[in-house]
């Protein structure tokens, strides 16, 4: 399989440090991958072992993850680098941002691992993502039911993903978070009871007004921090991701129906170029 071969090749660029490679994102559902940008997470033992440059290790530790482009056998990808410790931590409910557990509460595939311990660690971390989503979504879902939303097995997932989309600067359309659930509704129905049990919740559980308000405050904090982190990661990617500003424009144009054209000076100074796009993108509603 081309994806598996690509993951193995990616791991080969980090000898002695690569522990696992996970494939995720919309390309999981695609049969034809040519011309698309695949998404991987590369899990490493630690950042110093992964990089020859100290500043890259420091950047990955302070603002995880680092993101890089990769190409193999005619396929293009971007991959995020996390240590095993950070991957485990960022799938837990007390993580300070949503970016990891929000993605791994969705389908993903473990396509390469160094050994059985690496496999078990990756699976264990991913298994915590869906319970984390439901832990944080359940009080908000109850509040929305009180405001007239329909209560069913999918409501809590739709609520959770909608809240995570508001916790990052996203180029996708406003209804994108609901479509994540609707495109594979059977999966999320099957996962509801086991994920709630793993979270220590029940389907009939009710939360006090104080719990609901505390949960809303937590989401407000996650949303403020998440949008700041998006900007910081964008700045960092301008140093690590060759062609990153062109990928940013492609993603916005694809998901938001915008017509962003990158100018030569923006490619020469990608950080300034990316920042210069933001006011126009916010004004047009291309990102939110």
Number of strands: 5
Q: What is the beta-strand fraction?
A: 5-15%
The shape, in one word, is globular
> Could you say which structural class the secondary elements and strand pairing correspond to?
alpha+beta
Rounded to the nearest angstrom, the radius of gyration is 19 Å
Residues in helix, %: 55-70%
Write down the CATH class of the largest domain.
Alpha Beta
Sketch the major β-sheet. Answer: 5 strands, mixed
Keywords:
288 residues; alpha+beta; Beta Polymerase, domain 2; 3 domains; five-stranded mixed sheet; 14 helices; 5 strands; 13% strand; globular
List the helices and strands and how they pair.
Layout: H1 2-12, E1 18-24, E2 37-44, H2 47-50, H3 54-62, E3 66-72, E4 75-83, H4 84-89, H5 99-104, E5 108-113, H6 116-127, H7 129-146, H8 155-165, H9 176-182, H10 185-198, H11 209-240, H12 244-256, H13 264-268, H14 270-284
Parallel strand pairs: 2-4
Antiparallel strand pairs: 1-2, 1-5, 3-4
Helix pairs in contact: 7-8, 7-10, 7-11, 8-9, 11-14
Walk me through the structure.
This protein is an alpha+beta fold and 288 residues long. The protein folds into 3 domains: 2-128, Beta Polymerase, domain 2, CATH 3.30.460; 130-226, no CATH class; 243-284, no CATH class. 57% of the residues lie in helices and 13% in strands. It has 14 helices and 5 strands. It has helices at residues 2-12, 47-50, 54-62, 84-89, 99-104, 116-127, 129-146, 155-165, 176-182, 185-198, 209-240, 244-256, 264-268, 270-284, and strands at 18-24, 37-44, 66-72, 75-83, 108-113. The protein has a 5-stranded mixed sheet, with helices on both faces. α7 packs across α8 (155-165) and α11 (209-240) crosses α14. It is globular.
